[in-house]
């Protein structure tokens, strides 16, 4: 009985681990990845906290076995690591043996190198190989070439919902028979550009972020990459293998309210969740757990809370794992997809860290302790600038 | 599987806003070409206009043109492609951040630097809560959006989808890409037939399409298939043959092959290899009209759709000496510096 699109591989690198196992251990041991910025300098370094991966670009390139002539920026380095893990996890050795695609999400792309070298490109020809690493599409092409993939490659950039959109697009292409299997996910590196951007919006917290807390002060930026391998039923019938979970539903809607702010009623979020439930043909009561967007900004958590209350008569247990990883922007939908699937597989509700006081606008309390519970269906939310709201529904294999 | 028709087109680019492709010779192209702008406030509220960078203006306006032509249907999706995103606002925020050493920055240009700004602004203006997506895949950004739109019309209950491509100039990024060899230097000659120097003649523009399941009396053409890939598995010839056979076509069934020839000597061989698969076919080009930018291929689609609707093939589109025998089926093929390949197959209604 098909229950959506099968997920057969997962790979993840984040500030709480460079593998699926490390990430899971951190989640159950309440080990946060939030720290002070150390990989590059910024005027704001002492006033913000970030979910930074404590490996230099050189170390990451070494892990990938790249020679010195490469022009991978950090987004591509992180992406290639996570994507390769996902393929290994699914036991894929000949990537071009079937119709395979890569749909990758990013918002930072090569901006970390562009900002570093912007004033030096003109005088230093050695650096110019990084000019064409700037656009988002380049990072996906780099990841594809690292994997040896020749096929459909595209990049989705819808701000903080990007990776969730990449995942749902992949599922549709499998359902439509356009591809046999597809790597979907996203990657974003920390950069001065995003730190300063969110700082100028005054939504960065100077301490550990507190999703859904009355006294939340804003978000922590993070960096991460994660990919899932989706495979068609026909391919699985031919080569049976372990299925981690099924993507049973997905929804995409636009809040159409403001370029950056979410509407107070959470219209876009509500519509996205509803569409996901509809696609999976599930009633709201069937949802056992929600990985909330939960950025810990005043605006998001209020809007998302209202959307949850509109969608669910009784809001299921929900967590924001951004209290571990920070907000990893375009990658967030993918790392939280992995966490949602880990929750399904381990029958664990993951804690939300740093929560103290319920918001006064409503009676909603996130999951704060690790708890075991049979989980059949998990909803994962991702909302972004531009009103882009997406919701994914994962079901037990 | 349901059908997909092009029922509205909106184009803003380096030619005059009133330029008629089928009736007029295009203005000559230079190494760098700026868009010629319409009176935006005719279709975009003045209060919104003030903050908009060129790309956002062009995108919103072209989207409105496409919608008007198709009688303003309610949209089931808004899908944009952009190779570079909102480059002007990215540059503005980046240069301010560097010049002011991370201090006293205002968020406006950061907010508008996000790649999905055009699709978001269109949704805001139309108060449209439907599916909203932005693709950023270099030379196949627009085709990614088109592929998504076509698939939704073919396989879901979607009735009307707005799809578009947009890219804009930004002075310092233009200089960087010139340094990287992507663009021609400002005074370089532009020769599409026998280019001797590298780099493209940069342009900018926005091209939007209203795709519908239903054919209308004024439909331009039917969109049959779209495919995109980073690299051919074996050769471009094999990929072309596979795509044609999936659509039950042979190379002789293609009446016009429309290629993204771009006056870049270092890319000529890629297009010549595509042309070689169609030795007896009329070959068309369009980037001498639109200039080159990551989503210029959307202008190619607009041109092809106009040709099919009017059943006219103007001489200034012709790249080789072969005249088409009929104007039924057009295949567009593009690539960008050896990657981001795309196929778009179009047929007359």
From TrEMBL, chain A:
GO terms for cellular component: cytosol. Coiled coil: none annotated. Residues 2-396 form the Ketosynthase family 3 (KS3) domain. It comes from the Bacteria. GO terms for molecular function: 3-oxoacyl-[acyl-carrier-protein] synthase activity. It holds the Pfam family Ketoacyl-synt_C. GO terms for biological process: fatty acid biosynthetic process. PROSITE patterns: KS3_1, KS3_2. Keywords: Transferase. InterPro entries: Beta-ketoacyl_synthase (IPR000794), Ketoacyl_synth_AS (IPR018201), Ketoacyl_synth_C (IPR014031), Ketoacyl_synth_N (IPR014030), PKS_Beta-ketoAc_synthase_dom (IPR020841), Thiolase-like (IPR016039). Belongs to the thiolase-like superfamily. Beta-ketoacyl-ACP synthases family. This is Beta-ketoacyl-[acyl-carrier-protein] synthase family protein. It comes from Sphingobacterium humi. The lineage of its organism: Bacteria, Pseudomonadati, Bacteroidota, Sphingobacteriia, Sphingobacteriales.
From TrEMBL, chain B:
InterPro entries: Ketoacyl_synth_N (IPR014030), Thiolase-like (IPR016039). Pfam families: Ketoacyl-synt_2. Gene3D superfamilies: 3.40.47.10. GO terms for molecular function: acyltransferase activity. Residues 35-173 form the Beta-ketoacyl synthase-like N-terminal domain. This is 3-oxoacyl-ACP synthase. The lineage of its organism: Bacteria, Pseudomonadati, Bacteroidota, Sphingobacteriia, Sphingobacteriales.
């Amino acid at each position: 009985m098909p229950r959506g699109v099968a997920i057969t591989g997962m790979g993840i690198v984040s500030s709480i681990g460079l593998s699926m196992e490390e990430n899971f251990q951190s989640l159950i041991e309440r080990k946060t990845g939030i720290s002070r910025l150390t990989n590059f300098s910024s005027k704001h370094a002492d006033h913000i906290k970030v979910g930074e991966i404590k490996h230099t670009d050189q170390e990451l390139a070494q892990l990938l076995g790249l020679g010195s002539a490469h022009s991978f920026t950090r987004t591509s380095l992180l992406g290639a690591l996570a994507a390769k893990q996902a393929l290994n996890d699914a036991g894929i050795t000949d990537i071009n043996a079937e119709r395979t695609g890569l749909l990758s999400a990013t918002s930072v792309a090569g901006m970390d190198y562009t900002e570093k070298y912007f004033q030096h490109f003109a005088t230093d020809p050695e650096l110019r190989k990084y000019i064409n690493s700037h656009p988002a599409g380049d990072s996906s092409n780099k990841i594809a070439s690292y994997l040896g993939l020749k096929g459909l490659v595209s990049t989705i950039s819808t701000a903080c919902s990007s990776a969730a959109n990449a995942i749902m697009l992949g599922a549709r292409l499998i359902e439509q028979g356009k591809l046999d299997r597809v790597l979907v996910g996203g990657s974003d590196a920390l950069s001065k550009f995003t730190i300063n951007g969110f700082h100028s919006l005054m939504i960065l917290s100077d301490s550990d972020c507190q999703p859904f807390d009355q006294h939340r002060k804003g978000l922590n930026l993070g960096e991460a990459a994660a990919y899932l391998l989706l495979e068609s039923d026909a391919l699985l019938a031919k080569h049976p293998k372990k299925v981690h979970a099924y993507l049973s539903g997905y929804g995409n809607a636009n809040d159409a309210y403001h370029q950056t702010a979410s509407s107070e009623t959470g219209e876009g979020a509500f519509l996205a969740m509803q569409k996901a439930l509809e696609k999976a043909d599930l009633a709201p009561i069937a949802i056992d757990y929600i990985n909330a967007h939960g950025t810990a900004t005043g605006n998001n958590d209020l809007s998302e809370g209202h959307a949850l209350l509109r969608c669910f008569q009784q809001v299921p247990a929900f967590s924001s794992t951004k209290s571990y990883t920070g907000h990893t922007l375009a990658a967030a939908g993918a790392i939280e997809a992995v966490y949602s699937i880990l929750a399904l597989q381990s029958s664990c509700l993951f804690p939300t860290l740093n929560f103290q006081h319920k918001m006064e606008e409503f009676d909603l309390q996130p999951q704060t302790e690790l708890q075991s519970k049979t989980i059949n269906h998990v909803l994962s939310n991702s909302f972004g600038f531009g009103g882009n709201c997406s919701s994914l529904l994962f079901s037990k294999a | 599987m349901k059908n997909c028709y092009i029922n509205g087109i909106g184009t803003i680019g380096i030619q005059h806003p009133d330029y008629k492709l089928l009736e007029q010779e295009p203005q000559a192209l230079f190494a760098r070409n700026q868009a010629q702008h319409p009176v935006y406030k005719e279709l975009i509220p003045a209060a919104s206009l003030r903050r908009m960078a060129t790309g956002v203006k062009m995108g919103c306006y072209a989207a409105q043109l496409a919608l008007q032509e198709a009688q303003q249907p309610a949209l089931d999706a808004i899908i944009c492609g952009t190779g570079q995103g909102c480059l002007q606002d990215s540059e503005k925020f980046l240069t301010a951040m560097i010049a002011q050493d991370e201090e006293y920055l205002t968020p406006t240009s950061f907010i508008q630097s996000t790649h999905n700004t055009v699709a978001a602004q269109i949704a805001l203006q139309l108060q449209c809560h439907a599916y909203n997506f932005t693709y950023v895949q270099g030379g196949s950004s627009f085709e990614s959006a088109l592929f998504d739109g076509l698939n939704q019309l073919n396989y879901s209950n979607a009735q009307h989808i707005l799809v578009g491509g947009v890219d804009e100039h930004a002075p310092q990024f233009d200089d960087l890409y010139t340094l990287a060899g992507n663009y021609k230097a400002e005074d370089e000659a532009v020769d599409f037939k026998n280019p001797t120097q590298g780099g493209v003649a940069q342009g900018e523009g926005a091209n939007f399409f209203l795709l519908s399941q239903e054919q209308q009396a004024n439909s331009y053409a039917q969109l049959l298939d779209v495919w995109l890939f980073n690299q051919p598995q074996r050769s471009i010839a094999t990929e072309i043959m596979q795509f044609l056979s999936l659509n039950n076509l042979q190379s002789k069934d293609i009446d016009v092959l429309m290629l993204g020839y771009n006056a870049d000597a270092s890319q000529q061989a890629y297009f010549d290899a595509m042309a070689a698969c169609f030795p007896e076919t009329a070959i068309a080009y369009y980037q001498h009209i639109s200039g080159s930018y990551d989503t210029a291929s959307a202008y190619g689609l607009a041109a092809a759709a106009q040709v099919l609707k009017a059943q006219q093939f103007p001489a200034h589109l012709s790249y080789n000496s072969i005249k088409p025998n009929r104007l039924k089926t057009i295949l567009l093929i593009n690539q960008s510096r050896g990657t981001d390949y795309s196929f778009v197959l179009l047929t007359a209604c």
